[in-house]
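Look over what follows to help learners.
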Amino acid sequence: MPDGSGYWLLSTSAYTQAFGSADPSVSPATCTVFNNGGALDPGGTTAMAATASGHGYWMVTGPGYIYGCGDAPPPLGGPTAVRTGGENVGIAATGDGRGYWVAGSDGGVFAFGDAGFYGSMGGKKLNSPVVGIAATPDGKGYWLVAADGGVFSFGDAAFLGSMGGRHLNGAVVGIAPTPDGDGYWLAAADGGVFAFGSAPFEGSMAGKPLVQAVTGIATYAGAVPK
């Protein structure tokens, strides 16, 4: 949520659950769908991005179907299995909520609406598949992160370091930017967290017992970089 007091959880079957101030009325029943004949695909959702108001979100599936839910504008377009070289693994929204980027595991990036295209890793050799994307606060750049901890920066997104080439106890699963855009955190499946730039390290679950693997990370909207 914009005020940092709520969130949704997303399952692979497109089921969402609201917590805190997240709008519980936003559900798959409120969604419009791009490139799937208007039908809701019951499986394969891989990522979501909230609207600026906190009353809606977009979801993306592995094949590239995009769902706009709640006050999210009807999907502006989406990659399909034909156009991508891998599963779609991430989605990030522009600050005004009029566009978004979708990232594929092959490093491809697809821009829709007012989201600008600033480059990608599509067609380039990767040591590990891309697992996430995060946008800069002004929407003029983005980062991609790969499972081995490699970070790729585009547009005005600054490269501030990565875990590429370093030993990891668990694969990296996500990236989250600081509110000022001068830092980011990476999260690993074992609960490890790695901080770069202005992102402070506040702790992690590394070395602690987990019932299941960690799958993502998000920034608290009210955070103030130290």
